[in-house]
Amino acid sequence: MIVVMEHGVHQEKLEKVVDFLKSRGFSLHISQGIERTIIGVLGDKTQKENLALEALDGVEKVVAIITPYKLASREFRNTDTVIKIGDVTIGGQELQVMAGPCAVESREQILETAEIIKKGGAKIMRGGAYKPRTSPYAFQGLEEKGLEYLAEAREKTGLLIVSEVMDTRSVEVVANYVDILQVGARNMQNFPLLKEVGKSSKPIVLKRGLSATIEEWIMAAEYILAAGNHQVILCERGIRTFETYTRNTLDLSVVPIIKHLTHLPIIVDPSHATGKWRLVNPMAKAAIAAGADGLIIEVHPDPKEALCDGPQSLMPEKYFQLMGELEQVANVMGRTLQGTLHFDKTGTEG
Ligand code: PEP
Ligand code: MN
Q1: Which ligand is nearest to the CA of 308?
Q2: 272 CB within 6 A, ligand 1
Q3: How many domains, in total, are found in the chain?
Q4: What are 105-126's pLDDT values in tens digits?
Q5: Does residue 130 register a pLDDT over 80?
Q6: What is the C-alpha separation between 31 and 256, in angstroms, rounded?
Q7: How high is the pLDDT of residue 118?
Q8: What does the pLDDT look like over 175-190, one tens digit per residue?
Q9: What is the pLDDT of residue 36?
Q10: Is 247 in the pocket of ligand 1 (CB under 6 A)?
């Protein structure tokens, strides 16, 4: 439940209510706004124990939250969460594109791709150093060496870096090198990992599980929020259906649904959602038109040689073309896509 305190409530009264709730075993999340102070009351029994809280001095009203998620809900916070990393914002007016290869393959590949990504105008580079592969015989990633290459790319280009963390043991090392931690689809319900990244000061991209319902996905975000990290970016990356033509089925309706239910930013990954580079451009534009706050897209300097996910990776020219087209969709949506675009719509340097 949420306890809304009276306008301009005195600190002493606030403390009394807080002590009362703590004595009942609840954990609290206090949000002190300019207008109002609200207390998010967390615990299993909030509904049962509809304590006579409204009788307490300084309390204006008590609102029950009927959804199982609390901190992620719109009831708890009705203004959109905007995550700031330096001068880059995620969830604000500006859209963000995270682009780069599926996997870090070599120093040369990463430095070359970083130049391409920067040239196209994206501000965030993706690249996996720890790869969750279906086959144990497939390329597993360069691990810490890969993180070093990503960090070097950031130094050279100023791009921010997002990279996946697969287990609790590597949260610290990944967080040392990157700006945003990614929790992959296969780990969406790895609860120890969610709790661990919840302790990090870095923003988290939380991908939707392959077969996760919307509520399960938001509950996974709730784990991170409840552990103290309020910088969660949800990422729709397609779900399992009966369809086999595409790698997954992109659920775009989830974008307005997430916006309605939560205050968290949401981005879309049309690469893993479709598995086919031809579908990336139209689905990326559709995602922005649906209200997404950004995209995460696979781009490779030479997709046919990629060690991972070549068929869904955009060639540099296709990436440039997409960035040009996205700017127009962004403008229709009243959003901006910052960055210097040096390319016209056909991808020719202009
Ligand atoms: C990825 O983005 O590199 C990835 C493995 O995606 P997902 O977890 O969505 O499959
Ligand atoms: Mn991939």
Answers
A1: 2
A2: yes
A3: 2
A4: 999 999 999 999 999 999 999 9
A5: yes
A6: 26
A7: 97
A8: 999 999 999 999 999 9
A9: 85
A10: no
* Surrounding residues of ion ligand 2, Cβ less than 5 A: 102, 309
Q: Are residues 234 and 152 in the same domain?
A: yes
Q: What is the pLDDT of residue 340?
A: 45
Encode pLDDT of 133-161 as tens digits. Answer: 999 999 999 999 999 999 999 999 999 99
> Could you tell me the pTM of the whole model?
0.91
Domain shared by 103 and 211, yes or no: yes
Are 48 and 109 found together in one domain? no
Domain that holds residue 58: 2-63
Q: Which long-range contacts (CB under 8 A, 24 or more apart) does 24-28 make?
A: 24/49, 24/51
- Name the residue of 134, 272, 308 whose CB sits within 8 Å of the most ligand 1 atoms, as the mutation to test its pocket: 272
* Minimum CA distance residue for ligand 1 atom 10: 185
Largest interatomic CA distance in the chain = 68
pLDDT digit string, tens, across residues 243-275: 999 999 999 999 999 999 999 999 999 999 999
The angle, 0 to 180 degrees and rounded to 10, between the axes of the packed helices 107-120 and 316-332 is 30
Distance, CA 306 to ligand 2 centroid (Å)?
Answer: 10
Within this chain, do residues 217 and 257 fall inside the same structural domain, yes or no?
yes
CATH number at residue 196: 3.20.20.70
Distance 81 CA to ligand 1 centre (A): 24
Q: Is any ligand 1 atom within 6 A of the Cβ of residue 132? A: yes
Ligand 1 neighbourhood includes 237 CB (under 6 angstroms): yes
pLDDT in the model for residue 48: 54
Dihedrals phi, psi of 21, to nearest 5 degrees: -65, -40
How far is ligand 1, taken at its centre, from the CA of residue 41, in Å?
34
Q: 3-class DSSP state for residue 1? A: coil
Q: What percent of the chain has pLDDT over 70?
A: 94
Query: Under the phi-then-psi rule, with left for phi > 0, alpha for psi from -120 to 50, and beta for the rest, what region is 291?
Result: left
CB distance 128 to ligand 1 below 6 Å:
yes
DSSP assignments along 235-285, one per residue:
EE--B--S--SSSSB--TTHHHHHHHHBSS-EEE-HHHHHS-HHHHHHHHH
